[in-house]
Amino acid sequence: MDISFIIALMGGLALFLYGMKMMSDGLELCAGDRLQSILERLTSNRLMGVVVGALITALIQSSSATTVMTVGFVNAGLMTLPQAVGVIMGANIGTTITGQLIALDIGAAAPAIALIGVVMVVFLKKERTNAVGMIIGGLGILFIGMGMMSDAMAPLRDNAAFLSLITAFNNPVIAVLTGAVFTAVIQSSSASIGILQTLANNGLITLQHSVFILFGMNIGTCITAVLSSLSSSRNAKRVALVHLLFNVGGALLFSGAVLLLPLTAWIAQFTPANPAAQIANFHTLFNVVTTLILLPLGSGLAALAVKLLPEEKEAVKPVIEITRIPEQRLGNVTISLHEISELLNRMYHLVQSSLNEAFCGLTTLEWDKEKILAQESEIDTIHRTIIDAIPVVATARMNVEDSRRLNVLFKINNDLERMGDHVVNLSEHASQILKEKQKITPQASRELAELQTILNQTAALLPTLEEYHHADTLQHIDQLEEQMDQCCEKSRQDQIQRLRNQQIDGSLCVVFSEVLTDLERIHDHYHNLAQQLYHEELTAS
Predict the structure, then answer these.
(1) CATH for 331-538, options being 3.40.1160.10, 1.20.58.220, 3.30.200.20, 3.90.226.10
(2) Residues in domain PhoU (predicted)?
(3) Model's pTM, two decimal places?
């Protein structure tokens, strides 16, 4: 084995892994943030979760990517542990498609498949077409890489040192450990099983020896999800544990079957002249049967994961946090957009709470000023966190819809931060009134109550920043905006009249005018929020 062998083998593996990456990126562009709604709708039923997991994995040829995405979704609160169990089982079934395609020897058509994908990416302009082209092109590149690895391994059939090494796989324990370690290193069971099929095609390993390596590979593929869950929530760690339990359980079950029954001989007789197909068929049988056995026990698996990883006193997770994802992976954009939206909802409710407190100060001169300042500090911190995160998220590969939504969230972030500033101004105005030992007149108090009612009516039409609003809702808010402007203008005129009648002094008149300006600006920002959310819905439809 000289350096050229190593280069050819590693080059083929690189192309294989890059092909999977292209397919994952293509699916991300196709589905984008809709992955969340797809998973929410379809995974409430565990059987449908299996189907969804299998389809996603078949599209991207990587169970690791699907499982890591699932861990991320559970960590972000987009998916529950029971929902994740079905998706993980489906991912194990979907990953068998790679082996079946290798067994069908579509490698001969790989250059043509890659060409079609490249043409769609380079010469066609539609984003969705480009994304589909990435999936097709990635599939072609994946099998070109597999062909390179197959050609590189052909000389090994005459290599005495390698053949001597293969005999170590007669020991099932060594075989399982070898498969697990190798797959953990390259973090792709599809690639490792493809290499195993190549060895079998070259007559370097038998099916009887391959199956134990295969079991180890199924266990080794769990390492990616385990690593991604280490810094995640307790529930996300449980998802990785369920994946590990599933594959270890299947390996133990089938190890017993292989040792006690002529199972490999039964599988081999279906395709006696095609060793790669034998491994692919056994791999499919392993995952399908394990799923059929464990699917009814899915709730039990989730409960076992909870028992093995019980709730504990974890370090309190900061409320103000957006997950820093080190690399582009399937579902990352969905998770980032969701976390930004959650923080914006937090800002929205802080603004509402502070505004209500400020109104108490203006009307009764009794309010918690420190509470408003503390909430304003949190609003500013969240605002800065989102400002820092958006450029990072924006560099990720995303479709036009997700890019547009990110822009909307950026604008909402600025509106909410400005609203918080105006609320602090209201609190300071109340402090000034209290300091000068003055009091707003009963008529002015009624005017403030009317303005507060308008603000509350508008806020009620924006219950959360995640909900979309129809045209009639925006029209209603437009009317409230006009009503707010008219009421503020009338209040200013009435205040001047009270000043002329010497019911108030000049300083209170100035303060009240500034209060009206801040309230008017706050409602302007409410109006901006409504326009942004309505525009998002209109563009999406």
Answers:
(1) 1.20.58.220
(2) 344-428
(3) 0.75
